Amino acid sequence: CAGNGICKCRVCECFPNFTGSACDCSLDTSPCMASNGQICNGRGTCECGTCNCTDPKFQGPTCEMCQTCLGVCAEHKDCVQCRAFDKGEKKETCSQECMHFNMTRVESRDKLPQPGQPDPLSHCKEKDVDDCWFYFTYSVNSNGEANVHVVE
């Protein structure tokens, strides 16, 4: 019974938190807990203490790895561009699609928030529609609010 139960009449009687014919399936979900506090990152099911990722893009022990996903910078580039500079692919739909973050303008790159603050922070350098570089940071605070700082 895998050390997780008692064999009675050739049938395993499992201890609490174990199941299966050989008591080899743990019901403990803690190994499936992703860094965001969700079981299997909300993209899979926890079976015997292991994530079975149901979203094919996501892999890994807690379904958090995504090789084909856009990074934070590329994902928010178009919205930052239209909110800060009124141009880019989302210029016409900006007010509908791009109001999901708080935006602060700063004068220069050295005025951007720096690593070391409590919220996870991404520093971004992206090209705009005119082939010019623009710089911004993207962070999410403990209340789940997204904050963007963009260089004027």
From TrEMBL:
SUPFAM superfamilies recorded: EGF/Laminin (SSF57196), Integrin beta tail domain (SSF69687)
GO annotation terms (biological process): cell adhesion mediated by integrin; cell migration; cell-cell adhesion; integrin-mediated signaling pathway
Domain Integrin beta subunit tail: 73-152
InterPro entries the record matches: EGF_extracell, Integrin_bsu, Integrin_bsu_tail, Integrin_bsu_tail_dom_sf, Integrin_I-EGF_CS
Pfam families per the UniProt record, alphabetical: EGF_2, Integrin_B_tail
Lineage of producing organism: Eukaryota, Metazoa, Chordata, Craniata, Vertebrata
PROSITE patterns in UniProt: I_EGF_1, I_EGF_2
Name of the molecule in the record: ITB1 protein
Transmembrane spans: none
GO molecular function: C-X3-C chemokine binding; collagen binding involved in cell-matrix adhesion; fibronectin binding; integrin binding; laminin binding; protein kinase binding
